[in-house]
Design goal:
It is an enzyme of class 2 (transferase). The structure is a single chain. The protein folds into two domains: about 140 residues, Alpha-Beta Complex (Aspartate Aminotransferase, domain 1), CATH 3.90.1150; about 220 residues, 3-Layer(aba) Sandwich (Aspartate Aminotransferase, domain 2), CATH 3.40.640. It contains twelve helices and 13 strands. The strands form three sheets. The protein has a seven-stranded mixed sheet with strand order 2-8-7-6-5-3-4, sandwiched between helices. Strands 9-10-13-12 form a four-stranded antiparallel sheet. The protein has a two-stranded parallel ribbon with strand order 1-11. Strand 5, helix 7 and strand 6 form a beta-alpha-beta unit. The chain binds pyridoxal-5'-phosphate.
Length: about 400
């Protein structure tokens, strides 16, 4: 027996978090780094939300809550899901409030997958899904989407990755890192596939509030035959700029949520009481800040996409949602995505994330977050343009 569990041996540290560490150490050395690596809104949480949580603290609202979450927050979530997403859930038995969407995904994966079960993940994808599957002892199966096909999910592709051990499929829309928003046609393909093979669907819809050009958000749980087989995960980090609050939720059929609840109760017990009060304020209060942030992301998107397409050898399709530009650097002549990222950091002082960090299909691309100011975006583009022209 070793000193530590073997369970973690094959699991890498989060590539995006490791990049953040590198940026911080470079900054400590005095290097001026422009950070387009992170996935964190640069806005502060709206005042009316913070005020409610502060008041809760002052009032001594500092005790454990029901493990499923505050009844008023679950009620607000159920109402939101019914109104905005076409999902009907009973707040008493079909919703759990979690400390982050990340934790909601983790408890969902733990509750749904047995060791050796397979979880289909269309890739490139957010870095943690595969690691979560590994932590559950399950096997992530990457269904590689093709850049040349606009990272589109097709029934045919999914069929090629199914086996008799396939238990679930995890879909993220709007997507990190590709910026794709699932079309109705794609949602139908996923839904029909899940129904036909009797699979669970775990739907990560954390970027729901950030979409462009009128792209419609489709919740998988609202598709025919999917309500009874889908766990919908969402949270407050991105749309409401509440990353540090750690607040999310999972909703789905009562018998599955009952299993998810066991994992939740034996790991965190419940989500912070005063944080949940802030969540109620976010969902039931004015939504102006959410809309304003989405408008600002749209302006930044135009800036970064135009700027990237003007760089020699770089091409970038406009993202349909979320706040990432996923640029094709295959023609830039600087090698792999990791080579390009290293070059950008060393030669231009710009931190971005190599697409290869997001699994199969990500190579040849780099992800640039535009959850940062227009000034930083402009400077980063200027520095990369100058460095690329020097390299040519
Ligand atoms: N899902 C995706 C696709 C994300 O990009 C992120 C955050 O980066 C999360 C989930 C986690 O969000 P939270 O802050 O609620 O844990």
């Amino acid at each position: 027996k070793g000193r530590v569990a073997r369970r973690f041996a094959g699991i890498e540290r989060s590539a995006t978090v490791a990049l953040l560490d590198l940026v911080q150490s470079l900054r400590a050395e005095g290097v001026q780094v422009l950070d387009l690596g992170g996935g964190e809104p640069d806005f502060d949480t709206a005042d009316h939300i913070s005020a409610v949580a502060t008041e809760a603290l002052r009032d001594g609202f500092t005790h454990y809550t029901a493990s499923r979450g505050l009844p008023e927050l679950r009620a607000a979530i159920a109402e939101k899901l019914a109104e905005e997403n076409g999902i009907g859930v009973d707040p008493a038995t079909e919703v759990i409030v979690t400390p982050s969407a990340k934790h909601a995904l983790f408890v969902s994966v733990m509750a749904v997958l047995d060791p050796l079960d397979e979880l289909i993940v269309p890739t490139p994808s957010w870095v943690s899904y595969t690691s979560m599957a590994h932590l559950a002892g399950a096997r992530p199966v990457a269904a590689e989407l093709r850049a040349d096909d606009g990272f589109r999910i097709t029934r045919d592709l999914l069929e090629r990755h199914v086996s008799d051990r396939t238990k679930a499929i995890l879909v993220n829309t709007p997507n990190n890192p590709t910026g794709r928003v699932l079309s109705r046609h794609e949602a139908e393909a996923v839904a029909e596939f899940a129904v036909e093979h009797d699979l669970f669907v775990i739907a990560d819809e954390i970027y729901e509030k950030i979409r462009y050009d009128g792209h419609e958000h489709i919740s998988l749980a609202s598709m025919p035959g999917c309500a009874e087989r889908t766990l919908t995960v969402n949270g407050f980090s991105k749309g409401y700029a509440m990353t540090g609050w750690r607040l999310g939720y999972v909703a789905g059929p009562a018998e599955v949520i009952g299993e998810v609840l066991k994992v939740h109760e034996h790991t965190v017990g419940c989500t912070s009481s005063f944080v949940q009060r802030g969540g109620v304020a976010a969902l039931t209060g004015p939504q102006d800040a959410v809309e304003e942030m989405a408008r600002e992301y749209a302006a930044r998107r135009a800036l970064i996409v135009d700027g990237l397409n003007a760089l020699p050898g770089v091409r970038c399709a406009a993202p349909e949602g979320a706040f990432y530009a996923f640029a094709d650097i295959r023609e830039a002549g600087l090698g792999s995505a990791a080579d390009f990222s290293r070059w950008a950091l060393e030669e231009a002082g710009v931190a971005l994330t190599p697409g290869s960090a997001f699994g199969p299909g990500g190579e040849g691309h780099v992800r640039l977050s535009f959850a940062t100011s227009r000034t930083v975006i402009e400077q980063a583009l200027e520095r990369m343009d100058a460095a690329l022209r020097r390299a040519a």
